[in-house]
């Protein structure tokens, strides 16, 4: 992975790698879950489950790749396929995540493409210009946001996760910078 100069936009390869790392962490969580735990309801009215958040993440990647397969004419995150088997069976979700990782890698060979984000607003439909880099940056943040929720839910039922699970790459970079700048005290040495 190339390291961009300070202040320069992240490279496509860097954005692909951020997404792949998040997906790999998510697969690591799925490896620890039984279908019963994966489907366990949380929250008022039982509207949340680990599976629903994982399915939601997968739906967004599927919307991006579906739009790219259609020539990039329209990416639509609102009218996405909601495959309920992915929120019921962790092994099916893990298989789909492997497929997403493969699709992410293939993006590195794709020529720069102008994308259109289809964004409905009640009675109005906005068609917003975008790029694969912008959509990958969005997907990183969206995925990490839901992984943070997954981390909280998993913690409630005693599923151990690494400290970096559900932490945005920018925060991880900040932690590394802070660790390099903080002086070591005599007690720590």
**What does the main sheet amount to?**
2 strands, antiparallel
User: Residue-averaged pLDDT, rounded?
Assistant: 87
Approximately how much beta-strand content do the residues carry? 5-15%
What Rg is obtained from the alpha carbons, in whole angstroms? 18 Å
Task: Name the helix and strand elements from N-terminus to C-terminus, one letter apiece.
Answer: HHHHEEHH
And the CATH topology? Answer: Four Helix Bundle (Hemerythrin (Met), subunit A)
Q: State the end-to-end CA separation.
A: 33 Å
Name of the CATH homologous superfamily: dinb family like domain
Number of domains: 1
Q: Say what oligomer this is.
A: single chain
Tertiary shape:
globular
Count of runs of 4 or more consecutive helical residues: 6
Task: Going across the biggest sheet, name each strand in turn.
Answer: 1-2
CATH architecture: Up-down Bundle
The SS-based structural class is mainly alpha
Q: Which CATH first-tier class would you pick?
A: Mainly Alpha
| Unreliable sequence segments | 1-9
Count of strand segments? 2
How is the topology of this model organized?
Blueprint: H1 12-30, H2 35-39, H3 50-69, H4 90-107, E1 114-121, E2 124-131, H5 132-156, H6 169-181
Pfam family, one: DinB_2
Domain DinB-like: 22-149
Protein name: DinB family protein
Descriptive tags:
53% helix; two-stranded antiparallel sheet; DinB-like; DinB family protein; globular; disordered N terminus; Four Helix Bundle (Hemerythrin (Met), subunit A); single chain; DinB/YfiT-like; 189 residues; mainly alpha; 8% strand; 6 helices
């Amino acid at each position: 992975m190339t390291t961009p100069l300070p202040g320069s936009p992240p490279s496509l390869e860097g954005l692909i790698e951020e997404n792949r790392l998040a997906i790999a962490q998510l697969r690591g969580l799925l490896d620890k879950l039984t279908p019963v735990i994966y489907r366990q309801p949380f929250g008022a009215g039982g509207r949340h489950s680990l599976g629903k958040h994982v399915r939601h993440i997968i739906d967004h990647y599927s919307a991006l790749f579906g739009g790219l397969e259609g020539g990039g004419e329209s990416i639509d995150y609102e009218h996405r396929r909601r495959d309920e088997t992915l929120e019921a069976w962790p092994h099916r979700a893990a298989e789909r995540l492997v497929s997403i990782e493969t699709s992410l890698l293939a993006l590195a060979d794709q020529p720069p493409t102008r994308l259109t984000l289809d964004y409905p607003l009640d009675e109005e439909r906005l068609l917003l210009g975008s790029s694969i880099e912008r959509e990958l940056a969005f997907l990183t943040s969206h995925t990490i946001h839901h992984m943070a929720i997954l981390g909280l839910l998993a913690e409630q039922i005693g599923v151990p996760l690494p400290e970096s699970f559900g932490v945005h790459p920018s925060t991880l970079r900040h932690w590394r910078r802070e660790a390099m700048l903080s002086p070591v005290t005599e007690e720590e040495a």
